[in-house]
Amino acid sequence: MKNFLKKFVILLVLPLMSATTATPPSDTNAKVKSSYIMAFTKNIEWPGTYKEGSFVIGVLGSSGLVDELNRMAATKKVGLQNIEVKTFSSPTAVSKCHLLYVAPEMSNTLKDVLGKIKGQSTLLVTERTGMTKQGAAINFVVQDNKLKFELNKNNAQKYNLAVGSSLLPFAILVD
Amino acid sequence: MGRILYITIAFACLMFFCGTSASAQHEKVVYAVAQVQSGEVDKAKSAIDSAVTDPVTSVDYETWYLKGYIYKELYRKYDASSRGLGYRNEAIAALKKSIQLDTAKQNLDVNRQNLRSIAGTFYNDAVSFMDTTNHAKAVQYYKLFKETMLLGDPQFNFEKRDIEFKLALATQYTKLYDTDRKRNESFFALTKDLYSEILKLDPNNVRANYNMGLLFYNQAVNIINEMDYDVDIFTLSNTQDNTIVLFKQSLPYMEKAYELDPGRKETLIGLSGIYFSLNEEEKYKFFQNKIQEEKK
Q1: Are A57 and A72 in contact (CB under 8 A)?
Q2: Does A79 touch chain B (CB under 8 A)?
Q3: Is B179 within 8 Å of chain A by CB?
Q4: Mutate to test the interface with B, among A1, A23, A67 (most CBs of B within 10 A)
Q5: Torsion from C-alpha of B246, B249, B255, B260, nearest 10 degrees
Q6: ipTM of the complex
Q7: Which of B37, B171, B278 sits opposite A145 (nearest CB)?
Q8: B99-117: per-residue pLDDT in tens?
Q9: CA nearest B73: which of A105, A10, A174?
Q10: Spatial contact of B264 and B258, defined as CB atoms under 8 Å apart
Q11: Cα three-residue angle B271-B203-B175, rounded to 5 degrees
Q12: d(CA B251, CA B231)
């Protein structure tokens, strides 16, 4: 009996499949920067003449931030103003903006940029060490892996921009 | 099954029971064998069910072995497609009883072979249940596989199977979590626990290290992606802090996966993503270069 029954003893084993997929590549830093930019628009006061038409965010240089800002512009407003994102390849191309972000690789053109926005109420946002000393109102920096921002209130005031107090606890204040 | 074999077995059984004082009772067993031989498992069942209640044959390990075998065949005939448990449970109980009565271990090998065979069916069922809907059944059947396999092979090393099973289960939990991260939040912790268990068994498991790293990385990315653009600055700052913790939790696992398999493209992408998100530009560029080198 044993030999006969052995014939039926088959241990089947099927393979178990396992695979884990990554979340599609995402520029999380651009999302964080865009959210900061949105926070700046809510905590900084522009002159009354700047509260009509679209709220223009300019980007000087190529940056992954543009796509993210466009996504933001599609769904958000600054007060009652629609957001419009404009990109510029050089300082001479810069037109009237409420906020101008200068990409790191364009930082060396800051002097030209300052000349271009003189007399306007443009919040100048940069992303390179020392930029607030050279005229930027806000400069993104990284500290302990975290994106933070330096704020030079004087540079903001030069452009008739009033910085709200709620922004200050999160800013690295620079004179 | 050939007639010669049938005769041989029937004869062997008759010889086995020959000389006892209860040949009438043993006829049920012989009849059951003959019915099995003829493929008549239902008739064999009636005979063996009667034999196991008979005071004479019920104390014979061969009777219980035969019951185990017949019920295993009944499982194949009636329960295999529905993955039912009834016949298999009866078969296991009978084979255990046979082992218990077989004090001289005459039939131990075949009893265990049949138990291993049943264990294999549980394993296969666990595999077939492995999806986002039936994962609990997969767990249940895998447990049955382990319990039954231990009866069939007390020395069986489950480590490799456990790792495979946990990896597959973690994949399903991750899918469930990704489907609805709020409603299925508990699956994040369950997945993390599974990878921890795997890494306890095998700290050098590349997939578990990579997947654990990816779990934390994806969690952080999802939190940022789901964040509203006009979140208040206090929440924005807190969200950053929380995601930095997750990116840093991800890092040692992904680094370990890289150490174990430096050429694995997924790991290189994972590391470049983590370092990018941690704003560590040099390391991000290092892994970006590695990815480019791998492409060549």
Answers
A1: no
A2: no
A3: no
A4: A1
A5: -120
A6: 0.88
A7: B278
A8: 999 999 999 999 999 999 9
A9: A10
A10: yes
A11: 60
A12: 27
CA closest to B65 among chain A residues: A2
| Interchain contact, B240 vs A167, CB within 8 Å | no
Residue appearing with tokens 């489950």: B158
B214 to A20: CB separation less than 8 angstroms, yes or no: yes
- The string of pLDDT tens digits covering residues B143-156 is 999 999 999 999 99
List, run by run, the mean pLDDT of 10-residue segments along chain B (296 residues): 42 48 74 92 95 92 95 95 95 97 94 96 95 96 97 96 96 94 93 97 96 95 94 96 97 97 93 95 94 84
Token pair, residue A54, equals 């679209």
pLDDT at position A3 over 60: no
Task: Convert the pLDDT of each residue in B149-193 to its tens digit.
Answer: 999 999 999 999 999 999 999 999 999 999 998 899 999 999 999
**Residue in this structure with the two tokens 């992954």, named with its chain if needed:** A64
B-chain residues near A170 (CB < 8 A): 233-234, 237
**Interval A29-87: pLDDT, tens:** 999 999 999 999 999 999 999 999 999 999 999 878 999 999 999 999 999 999 999 99
Nearest CA of chain A to the CA of B258: how many Å? Answer: 16
Name which of B165, B99, B93, B155 is nearest B135 in CA terms. B165
The residues, ordered by sequence, that sit 6+ positions from B63 with a Cβ below 8 Å of its Cβ are B29, B48, B51, B52, B57, B98
